[in-house]
Task: structure prediction
Amino acid sequence: MSIIYYLIFPGFVFTTIFSMIVCWFDRKLTARLQWRKGPPLLQNFYDLFKLFSKEVVIPDSANKTLFVLPLIIGLFSTVLVATIEWLVIILPQHSFVGDVVVVLYLFMIPSIMFMISSAASGNPIAMVGVSREIKLMLSYELPLVCAVLVSIIKSGSIRFVDLMKISAFSSVSEIIALVVAIICFHAKLGLVPFDIAEAETELASGIFIEYSGPLLGIVRLTRQILFSTAPLFIITVFLFKGSWWLLVIKYILIVVIFTLIRNVNPRLRIDQAIKFFWFIVFPISLLGIILALLGL
Result:
């Protein structure tokens, strides 16, 4: 049964289809904001099929194992995150002690795998992207953990099923944690203004410069699943209370927030991003923890 959960529903097959639709909505909304028509519903499926039908190209300077294997591990970990999230929402009895911590760790794996794979390519431009990704990751991970800690303190548990019983709007500390989590996930997803490691106009896709064909397809699929799964995590930790229709509305609103932020902001420099997270977001997340400990 666990294999069915992971491979079919709510695992790989379902998650892939769902993420394609969510990313289509993101692209369609972006197009409307820019007075364009936007892509058809199946465009992401066409793009993925095209990439996987091409030849696998590996740079001569690359370590072939370290160039390919981390991408597969990153995809598997992302699918596992989505599977856990959906199971907790659909069948709460599948929640286990420490599942929040497990998911936080699993969310880190794709970025780490991208860095290992990109570094193994031997491309100097890719190495610049890896350097930026490391600095950015060290900046947003701590505030994100602090935001989740607020919910853990309020619920007294590290199980999703217990965190789902509290509401972000029940206290000031939860509202602060919600805002911090949205900002940190925006950076984790590599969306503008935090697409610093990719920086298409500066680094020609930076950390992803050497990927093409099926390997680029794996990268895109991983990022699309992350994009569709991040709102699920935010909802289960901070916003789960309410009817199913209300949960759908909350999910759509979070996706809209991600889309609006990346469409109205310019890309930050890496030093600006580091200062933003360490001197603004991190202190605010600490304030949330202090207020949670005080019962506020």
In short: Residues 2-293 form one domain. The mean pLDDT is 92. The chain has one domain: 2-293. Residues 124-155 form the longest helix (32 residues).
